[in-house]
Design a protein that fits this description.
158 residues; 27% helix; alpha+beta; GTP Cyclohydrolase I, domain 2; 4 strands; globular; four-stranded antiparallel beta sheet
Length: 158
């Protein structure tokens, strides 16, 4: 009796931001995007393009387009799609992990994402497997979003 619980104390002493300081998080997504690219480490993969398939989830604070109905107030998924096809044609990496990282960084830098999830797969790598691949999640650096690093918490695993 009388023992303190450090977890309860930490929770009790943690300031909770006012409800109005939380912004809604919206997710623009692209599912099943396919393209052709040269990627791999096997000699058979280093010269001929092969199909890759990807899904993207792009998190941004409340999109103004929900009320304005203007394409300039959202992430233009047609532009994201076009940029990805350009990257598939020009990258010089061998691993899906490295390509997924380039896609994630491009979406953050060029399209204003605060976080992004990229799932990238080779659907025809092996005869006895539907697909092999990688899924990554990246966040915009906290300093780059002016102290709003909490945006997306609860939406993206820590």
């Amino acid at each position: 009796m009388g023992r303190s619980d450090p977890i309860r104390e930490a929770i009790r002493d943690t300031p909770i931001p006012a409800a109005e300081s939380y912004a809604a998080m919206d997710i623009v997504f692209i599912e099943g995007l396919t393209g052709q690219t040269v990627i791999g480490i096997d000699k058979s993969e280093l010269h001929d393009a092969q199909t890759v398939r990807m899904n993207l989830a792009i998190g941004v604070p409340s999109l103004r387009a929900c009320t304005t109905d203007r394409i300039d107030d959202t992430v233009n998924y047609a532009a994201v799609r076009e940029a990805i096809h350009g990257l598939l044609a020009s990258h010089r990496v061998q691993l899906l992990e490295a390509l997924a990282e380039r896609i994630a960084q491009m979406v953050i830098a060029d399209f204003g994402a605060h976080w992004v999830r990229v799932s990238l797969a080779k659907p025809a790598k092996f005869d006895d497997v539907d697909a092999v691949g990688v899924q990554i999640e990246r966040r915009r650096a906290s300093s780059a979003i002016s102290g709003l690093g909490w945006i997306g918490l609860g939406y993206v695993p820590q």
